[in-house]
Amino acid sequence: RRRPEAAERWARRPEVVPGRGEQASGDPALAQGLLEGAGRPPAARATRTEGQDVASLSRSPLAREGAGGGEQLVDQLIRDLNEMNDVPFFDIQLPYELAINIFQYLDRKELGRCAQVSKTWKVIAEDEVLWYRLCQQEGHLPDSSISDYSCWKLIFQECRAKEHMLRTNWKNRKGAVSELEHIPDAVLCDVHSHDGVVIAGYTSGDVRVWDTRTWDYVAPFLESEDEEDEPGMQPNVSFVRINSSLAVAAYEDGFLNIWDLRTGKYPVHRFEHDARIQALALSQDDATVATASAFDVVMLSPSEEGYWQIAAEFEVPKLVQYLEIVPETGRYPVAVAAAGDLMYLLKAEDSARTLLYAHGPPVTCLDVSANQVAFGVQGLGWVYEGSKILVYSLEAGRRLLKLGNVLRDFTCVNLSDSPPNLMVSGNMDGRVRIHDLRSGNIALSLSAHQLGVSAVQMDDWKIVSGGEEGLVSVWDYRTNQKLWEVYSGHPVQHISFSSHSLITANVPYQTVMRNVDLDSFTTHRRHRGLIRAYEFAVDQLAFQSPLPVCRSSCDAMATHYYDLALAFPYNHV
Fold it and tell me: F-box domain location, by residue (predicted)?
């Protein structure tokens, strides 16, 4: 950093008058101090012996001048060299492990700058431990170990390039879209998905599963235990849920089927309620199912031997409309149930029922995370009080925040999938709001839909929302810009996306169709509902074809690779 300054001073050195050089060099103490490296750090002077100084001086042409200001030139040169070497940390010998512990606090840009300092720093800055830790911090290859790859810096660069490509495809609507196959003469009742696997229930009583991660996958039917039932004679499916190992379906007659996706298409357990099941919940990280029927809430889980049993049973004074299982609770499951103007925390460990919220406006939506629960409550009008979202601590059992205060009711809230300290919600007024959980304020409000918002999800840069009018909108909330939108004729009931895929489901409100309507294929197609799967991590060469290219058979699901902007142009409302 100081090398140009030293060179400039060396170029502007004054001319030496004969005779003045001898006078300046007449001080033996000054000459001896120069030879010993005066001005250098003590550690550097200690490493030089007197014999080395004399030898180096004897080899210097400036020192051999003996006259004409040679000692002044040597003095200036030594000072300039000392200034160039006076950089902290270069003359300190640290153990390699200690240097790694210091460098672990640097991000990728700072490590890149440190690698340009010296060869020693380059070796430290490119250590595999540092780049493996960066990959884990940014969510790349979370299930891998450090021994899986030989160059984690290269893996990190490839993951960053793939992430950039996915973000570009999201913004430009480039990818593959699939319409999952419908069941003839049946209407879609409920849809759920987990990690790219989709489950759907129909009015015919059929339950079907697709794995959208493998495009040539043929969706299987999950069979009921009653083999004597004729096709189409089973009761309607009320709710479906799925996680990494289980699939669950609740029927209108109060029956519940649980399938193990690893063992086969027949249910491993069948449970019966006396009345219709009003709410269904499935844990996303373990095998726990919760159902609400009439005034009873039942938790089901397998024993150590693998036999399903009732883990806990609770009785509530009102009908339950919303039911969720708290994630990451360990051995004993915990659920949250909303029944009218009551909110309960249900613990299976001691069958304890804790009242979180009572005697207020009715609950309109619900979502839970590992340590918090957020739910919307109806407003009392502008004269009294508007609709709000209340955030409670599950551990302390007390209210943390009161968010909102708008005229219309909140219809959906997503706390579990939102970034830290943020939460997204949808309202009957058609607006999508981002809430800052640190300040309790609304960070952003988007006018997204003409009717109410029925589903919403966000990540670190985008929002995907669905409306009751059937519109799916994608927003870049950092720039407050709508990227694209897709329209279908039914309300959007389910939205789930990852970094590379998006699954949407349009479920009709009216699930009963007249027989005359079933005879018309066009009418049935209009009323049956729709499930779409979008994949943005496909080869860019697939976008060059202006026409759809089918990759699978007609009885599986029609997959097309093309520019989504050409297939679904903007539909402004």
Answer: 88-134
